[in-house]
Every structure is written in structure tokens, then in C-alpha cells.
Design a protein that fits this description.
Blueprint (H helix, E strand, L loop, with lengths): L1 H15 L11 H18 L1 H4 L3 H12 L5 H9 L8 H23 L6 E4 L3 E2 L6 E8 L6 E10 L2 E9 L2 E2 H30 L12
Antiparallel strand pairs: 1-3, 2-3, 3-4, 4-5, 5-6
Length: about 210
């Protein structure tokens, strides 16, 4: 599982790239292919991101990628059965902290992009009613290709990603075990506190050279 999580971090820049879709796009596979190529161009050319500017990476994620994630649904899937125990305000706090954790993790990964490329397959109907699955493959120079699958569903008329699987391992499922452990210690509040502590300890770093 640790190896899978490390692989996940390597892949995250390319996993997130497809989500900043222009409004006129409608098909999930067009979403993946069109915007991935646009974002890969940015990653190849942006010297600040290459220099490790995590704040810039976080801004990019929040503005271009975050709006296309269904964070409440992702959080409920990661929390699992414990989600039912949470009051509305606790669900809001869990979603907020989980979103912060993911964005900061993604920002770290975004700055580690190293010339990967992506191959695409047509979208297929997902397991969820009205949903879709988009399968891609990340090609790493000198390494084995990695299968990355996106699960999407329409939310308020727009396609949004609610889970990503790497070599058939779900990103949100990777969190479920540790979240369940924290929930068993003290319910939703215990998990909220743990996420807050993780987020306080993961403050973004400036770019090399001292840029804020």
C-alpha cells in the first residue's frame, strides 16, 4: 500500500490536469484529453513550478482544478460509514479539511513533474447511474506505464471527478482505513482534529530562490 501511495504522488500532476475543462466541452474523454495536453504544456514551460513553487501550484489547483472535483462526495467516500455519524457542520468541516489536505498534497506533486506523457482511451459508462469511466495511461521515461482511471458523474449539469484509481487502487479508498481508525477514537471530531493537524504541518513552501 505504501508503494501504491508513493506511485499516487508521482501521478497526481497528470491525474489532476484533465479537470480544468472549458465549459463548452461535454464528453468526459474530451475533458481528459484536451485539458491534459494544455496543462502538460504549462508544466513544461513554467519555471516557477519547476522550481518548486508550491504556493503557485496551490493557486493553480484551486482556480483551475478544484471547481471540477466533487469534494463532498470524495470526502463521504473516504470517510465511509462514519459519514452517517457526522452532523451537517461536521460534514462541512471534514470536507474543508480533506480538500485542504488533497490540494496541498497535489501541490507538492505538481512541482515534481518530470516529462511524463499520457495515452487515452474512450470513455465508458461507469458503475454509477449516468456516470462515466475514463481510462488513461501515464508513460514514464525509463519506467513502467501506470494505469489511471477517472470516475466521473454529472453534478448540476457539469462533469466532476469523484474518484481516481491508480493500477486499480482507489485514491479515496486509500484514506478509508486511517479515517476509520480516527473515527473509532472519537467520532467525526477526532478525524477533524487529525486532518487539521496534518494541514498545519504541511504549509506550502516558497519557490527556490525565496519567492513568496
Amino acid at each position: 500500500m505504501i508503494r501504491q501511495l508513493r506511485t499516487c504522488l508521482v501521478c497526481l500532476p497528470l491525474m489532476l490536469a484533465p479537470l480544468a475543462l472549458h465549459a463548452q466541452e461535454t464528453s468526459p474523454d474530451a475533458l481528459v484529453k484536451g485539458v491534459t495536453e494544455d496543462v502538460l504544456t504549462v508544466l513544461r514551460e513554467d519555471k516557477a513550478l519547476q522550481g518548486g513553487d508550491q504556493r503557485k501550484a496551490m493557486t493553480l489547483i484551486e482556480e483551475k482544478i478544484g471547481p471540477h472535483f466533487d469534494f463532498p462526495r470524495m470526502t463521504s467516500l473516504a470517510v465511509g460509514q462514519g459519514w452517517r455519524q457526522a452532523a451537517p457542520e461536521q460534514r462541512e468541516a471534514l470536507t474543508r479539511e480533506f480538500r485542504t489536505l488533497l490540494v496541498r498534497t497535489y501541490a507538492n506533486a505538481l512541482t515534481s513533474y518530470k516529462n511524463q506523457t499520457v495515452s487515452y482511451k474512450p470513455a465508458t459508462p461507469g458503475r454509477e447511474d449516468g456516470g462515466a469511466m475514463v481510462r488513461t495511461q501515464i508513460n514514464q521515461p525509463g519506467g513502467q506505464p501506470i494505469a489511471v482511471d477517472y470516475r466521473l458523474a454529472k453534478n448540476s449539469g457539469a462533469w466532476k471527478v469523484f474518484d481516481v484509481s491508480i493500477d486499480n487502487v482507489s485514491l479515496v479508498t486509500n484514506y478509508r482505513g486511517s479515517f476509520a481508525t480516527e473515527m473509532s477514537k472519537g467520532g467525526p471530531d477526532a478525524l477533524i482534529r487529525t486532518l487539521q493537524e496534518k494541514n498545519r504541518g504541511a504549509a506550502p513552501k516558497p519557490a527556490k530562490g525565496g519567492n513568496a
